[in-house]
Amino acid sequence: MFIRNNIEIINRGNILNKKEAVIALNDHLLRNKKILDPSITAIDVANQHGKVVASTNEMLIGRNVPEQEAFAKNREKIYDEPCISTPHFNPHLNTRELDISAPVEYKGQIIGIIVNHYDLSALSEITRENTGQDGSRETVLGMKSGDNIVFLTTLRYADSAPLGVAIPMDSPEAESMQLALTAEAGTVIAPDYRGVDVVAAYRHIPMVDWGLVVKVDKDEVFAPLRLLGIIALIAGFISAVVVVCVSVVFAISISRPIRKLTHATERLAGGDLKCEIKIPRSDEIGILAGSFDTMRIRLAKLLKNIEKGRKDWETTFDSIKDLIALYD
């Protein structure tokens, strides 16, 4: 109400009233508006013709700026909501800035336009705080300007590039920001402004029609998975080596007693019943060796008994022969 009334006085009042209204409006903007946000470099009020009639920066008063985007769009009622300009350099304030403007209406007519000039470095500071120093994470803000996407913040990997870097809307490098400007929220794997594949989370900011993208290089995101794959490969190789070594040791531990048992059975088959079969193992091979040795002992006893019986029969037979000879 205060701003509207003073603009009306400036537009229609006499010279004395105009001067008082300008002083009052300048003081109001400086004391009550500009201090609300430290990123505001200046606040201008222009009449319906685009002439700055009040400002927190006296050097801007009296300038005619009807062609500037912030004034032109509001004067023509292109937007029903506050108009946000594209990033630009303001030589009068010596800053890279973004202008947010809104019309001042009275009885359905636009009687003036109020413009807040914002220092873009404030946005870069905010995104830089959310970017961090480690890794490839980066937070960027962008807006649509015609057929292009304009980045509103300093790009981490293009520090030397001018503020407000623009790339075509249909460029592959603009996919994540394009989604941020046309969709609500989501994630995507796509090239960024460097042409490097990134994993990006995006969100649309409808209040100002901006896009917010937080991205990390794809290689960095999937590095733990690749490391896990390498570890799994190494572990698999080590496991295979261990299995082979264990198999070889196991085969040797089995083949040696089997060869010993085979040699002993061959001697046993050849009639050598004195060959002891001793394999000190508690497994099946040891049990088998023990069974063979028990069989050897029993076989030796059996043969010994047979031999003793044979000798007994020979002695008996000789006695019978001698007895028969006496009777003859």
UniProtKB/TrEMBL annotation:
Signal peptide: none annotated. The lineage of its organism: Bacteria, Pseudomonadati, Planctomycetota, Candidatus Brocadiia, Candidatus Brocadiales. It holds the Pfam family HAMP. It catalyses: ATP + protein L-histidine = ADP + protein N-phospho-L-histidine. It is a multi-pass membrane protein. InterPro entries: HAMP_dom, HssS/ArlS-like. GO terms for molecular function: phosphorelay sensor kinase activity. It is found in: Membrane. CDD domains: HAMP, PDC1_HK_sensor, PDC2_HK_sensor. This is histidine kinase. Keywords: Kinase, Membrane, Phosphoprotein, Transferase, Transmembrane, Transmembrane helix. Residues 252-304 form the HAMP domain. The chain crosses the membrane at residues 227-252. It is an enzyme of class 2 (transferase). It comes from the Bacteria. GO terms for cellular component: plasma membrane. PROSITE patterns: HAMP. Its EC number is 2.7.13.3.
